[in-house]
Give the backbone structure.
Amino acid sequence: MARLPFFETTWKRKARLTGIVLGVFLAARLLALLSERLIGLGWGDLPVSLLAIVYLAFLYVEIWIILERHTRPFLSVVAAALLAALCLASPLIPFDPVATGSVPDRLRFWEPSPGLERPAGQKITLLSRSFLQEPLVEAEEALTRAEGELFPVVGLLPGSAFLPPAERTALEGQLLALVQQRDLPPTRSHLWAQVVLVQLARARLEQTLVTIQRRVDCLQAGAAAPAAPAGVIAPAPCLADPAWSLPLAPSLVDPEALQEQGATVTFIDRTVTGLQARLAAATAAEQPASGAEGLPRFRVGPQDDPARPFASLLAGDAGTNPPDRALPPDLSARLERHESALRRYLRSMEDTRTLEAQIALIPTALANGLAARRLPEGEVAEWQLQEQPELARRFEELSVQDLQRMLDPRPREVLRHTEQIADPQQQELFLHFLAQTNHWHLRDPARVKARLQQAEDEFRAAEVIGGGQYPPVQLCQMLQDQGSDAAVLQLASLDRGGNRHLRLLLVHATPCLTVWDHDVPIYDQSDVLGSTVDDAAALSVAATEFFAPSLLGTDYLGKDLLMQLVKGTEGFFLPGLLAVAIGLGLGVILGAFAGYMGGRVDKAITFFTTLIGSFPRLVFILLVCTIPETPSMLLIGGITGALFIPQVAEAVRRRVLALKAEDFIVASRAHGLSLPRILFYHMVWLQCFPEIVRQALYLFVYVIFLETALSYLEGPGAPPEIPSWGRMLANATAAMFHGQYWHALVPTAAIVFTTIGVAALGDVIVGQAKEERL
Amino acid sequence: MNLANPHLKLALGVGRRLVYYLILLILANFLMYFLVDLAPGDPLASAFVDPAEVERLGAQLGLDKPFLERFFIWLGNALTFEFGFSYKLQLGVSVADMVLVRFGRTVLLVLVSLTISLAAALVTSALLKPEGKLGAGLRPVMLVLSALPAFLLGYWVIQGVNRVVLNLVQTGFFTESPMWYPLPRLEGGIVPYLFAGIVLGLGDATFGDLLRGVDQDLAVLSGRRYIHSARARGASRVKHGLAEISISLVGLFASRTTFLLGGVVIIEKIFNLEGAGELLWDAALGRDYSVVVCISFLSTLVVIAMAFLADIYQFLVDPRVRQ
């Protein structure tokens, strides 16, 4: 019997080995404890930690065997040390944005902000002293305030709750009135509500642009900045205007006709067009409101002419601004930065996907009683409503508030908890901290509770510093005013969730980013990846450099790579085990019987295995993946195991066939041993063990191949909110656009080590068994 | 009838093999068809609201027939390369039009990559002995590279070429000038195909397995007495051992086709090659069953045909099997 080398050594070595294993176990435990302090992987993640420990122990045994048995242990150690050093050193590699000269024009979709470019040979000072000591501090503050007014715009959109409750209620009341005023069939009212929401958001954006420009002009002229509107922000002028009532109604029916009439229709974008198509289908029987009188009186939006910068648009607006006045260079640079942010915002609004998917989500959410995040395409909503009259009736009873609540992608429990906080500022702060916790924890109610507790603790910690009255932005500005790194370090020491949060606070602290980290739909990783600002990335990297917060550094969103690495093992561990169980279980039994029985049994089993073996694996897996609603990785693992049956069965069969005529088998038969005992103990267990282990390991490695490849390509079985090594690699590709090419090292090293290690372990076991037999 | 006639024996043997593989093909596709039949959703019901219309169209298309009858109708159509129409990816386009050219391209890629890999394994096995210095140095490197997932190798190749050679930052593979077009509509030129072929033949343990197999076969072969005696007489070992080794090489080739036809899905996706694998990926994610089934059918067909050809080859070359 082939045994693990452990059983063949002397007692002394055994004791040493056991000591090492225990040491590794304790070290892993300690690591888990430390990880709670360092990376926020707390006891709530005990299953994950245990899995990781089992996995680490497995790797340990494997590495030990390789080192002991491999012909070139020295080389392996050197290679391992080299890669490990690379991984550990990755956060220390200096930040170097993409050299823009080498990026072709079609790829240059982001521009590094001038304020964030790193002075040559100098470390970025955190808290951005450069921002503080510039002469334009006041202008910046004004801009910050103006940008603060962009929050409501964002708040109107589904998925964001940063609007002060009083104002939200007021606006929603107006919205509801508008919707009711149209006297629409109730099934379509949510579409209208969406249209109005989008339009309102656009109107507010317009208004804010004007406000910003006014402030800028005032500052330029040396006058005092007008006071920011206190309390509830005045509603957009379009809402006060009676002629405005749903201005887009005609354009929804025929936008081209409107353009022919020379109307300056703005903001007809893909969002509205997408909604418009649905509305047009719904209003087919109804006569559209006609006439161009009720048309919108928006000016041409900035995104209509991408070549024209905002600054010139605003400077040239004769109605509100003194004409022909050149902005000071610094200020125009700020405006340009502003512009890129605004443009990005507009571009993100053009993305119909979120809105439409969320609209499609409503009936399902009703039916299930919860807002599931992932839906297939948005085509099922109408159909389901027609099919289910009860659902349709309940759907029509919904108010806009209900709709908005349903459209909010956060889990119910979080929302309920949020509503319990009375003070809006505290609520905002709470949400802010909540946003920074790792969102994949929010799927499980128990974890939600734990995370809420943690978020609350963090909230208290921040409260200690801020005295409970400052939202994060002001808090950071206060720190900036004090200008001491010591204060930041103090904050870091209080922040027990890890420096990640501090980093995000710092991102928050940069005035020009205020809009952006609120705009990002934090609960959806893919959206985060799609719309994050490079500035935020740059800052987070700068912070990473400064604090060296975790062993492997963070990705460009500030998320800990080590934690993702550990968490990523979950993706293939259980599916791999399942595959091994299925493939080995059936394969060994079938192969053993085929080899032992021979004749017809052999032929039948061989035919069966050939049948299974005639499917190309991935083709068959993809075929099966089309069948269930959401194919899980476990299913894929199971199928993979089934597809490996032929290989295992053939290996076992060949061995059993060769053994059948051996003397000791004949002898045991003569002794009257039972068939299962001869077959499965004397033949399979004692003789085929190394081969079976090799097959099992290869199967496991294949599942790792599959999982990483599928999650790298966002394929079936890889839900986007769960970290996985393949997705880390994909994210590293995204980070490469930000110039952070070293991110790819961590997942690569993980995949390389694991696959090679496991494969080598199989070879070593087989080789050792051969040596024994000789 | 003279059963001793070698030609008749040959024909009988080939015929039996053919029947065996035909049954295999039919059963495999039956399993596949059964699985897809389990899948939820009805394309007709999603396209037409009126249930009467759905029923009428279903009857017109033969959907009301029993399962077995439908299967044999489908199989008959499939064997004449008639696969119906796509109803998700390209609505109403004939699946055969969509798939066949792409599938040819994919099979070409697989065969070329497998040939390269096998040739490399043969050369390595014959020339780079593990005892020798060069072999001891090179073999572990090759085996380690081969133990990596093909998609990771592809990722390295793409990023490496993009960053180092072309000095670009991008996700896909990019060549400045199209160079040579082995099949129509190969837009990116031959370079991505070449890289993809090498990566496919190396990664996912393909090369390692082939090398191990060839090593074993060569060891067995060099232990044979007739090889020893040929060598003692000064005759060419290659000439005398070729027949025996070629059988196992063909067997290896045929058995690896299955793996590569699966792996090519991911490789094509990564290299953005317009092949059947990429199409299968899109079709599976978009639930375009007719396309999925068509590609699965063709893949199974290729795999079984390869196995059949390998069997026939063995039958022709090995006199022991013929007996």
User: Anything to note?
Assistant: Chain B touches chain A through 56 residues (CB under 8 Å). Residues 174-187 of chain B have pLDDT under 50 and may be disordered. The radius of gyration of chain B is 24 Å. Chain B has 14 helices and no strands.
